């Protein structure tokens, strides 16, 4: 076929094909393989994929399967587990219970195993083409007095995935600022020390989250004002292309809020902040939106959500409905206008849910290694597999305890510690 078609026509056709097909087509010929693995083709294919139908990736921890479960859903009226695409999960037994998902960008997820203890691995994973990249960890990571915050996203100008790591040293019950910063670029395959100006801010430990908007990673952070140990909340951001830090002011009602009660999110492409009445056991929250990016005067309170009997805000659908969890461990879609919710039939432990935008891409096709779930061999009998599975569950519970009890314990211990630290 390529012998009779100009290369530019062939490329135009290929950009409309799904990544799984393109991975197989690499075997057709050397020329096809060269096209599909070229940075130029991967870039334009990813751009094409990002314009396709809106999809959402959902992660939760299943006690029955003793594992994280991932699925991709079309963001339409049929958003449910029955209509979802199940994703093969290759990291079973790599971490305690489940990973923190730092973020999702251009079909690649950034995973960090720090939610239930010390961080030992950072993994970039493309579930569509089953490729992974494990990043090296620093030697100082083993020290108990070091706290890391990560940012992850795609650098559009340089066509590269990047991870920024912010390292805080703890001393005398506080975190020293400014923190040390390193940047990892997939193209170079190594960490390098950031030598630019770093704001003297701190991102909340354990509860931190990020969102990427307009090419920058955003976190809710706080700074010590030096007056009776008062802190002021702000938005701290890192531009992935220019590699510079910046700050944005929050609306006045959020500046003095306990920072662990704030969470940065994206709502219809705009920067937004969720304000909880309490981080643990919240009964209500308000959604604040920056209508015009960069204009601090454009912050406005968008709407109020009654969380009685519900969990934390996970994200938003294209129609504006809120995605959150319920006490029955299910994922809900909440219509804030009508004030009613719909059970989506997707279940997992309450605090293990993650939702984020997703598109299929060829990211990590060249840089990553194969990431596949272990499949039992023909010699493994069903009874042996069942026995091993039951034994594994029992061993995990003996070793770690129940996942929901661990979630509750970690949430409350960190809430009490940070509340005391920030209110002192």
TrEMBL record:
This is F-box domain-containing protein. Residues 1-44 form the F-box domain. Residues 379-399 have a biased composition (Acidic residues). NCBIfam families: F_box_assoc_1 (TIGR01640). It comes from Erythranthe guttata (Yellow monkey flower). Coiled coil: none annotated. InterPro entries: F-box-assoc_dom_typ1 (IPR006527), F-box-assoc_interact_dom (IPR017451), F-box-like_dom_sf (IPR036047), F-box_dom (IPR001810), SCF_F-box_component (IPR050796). Residues 371-400 are annotated as: Disordered.
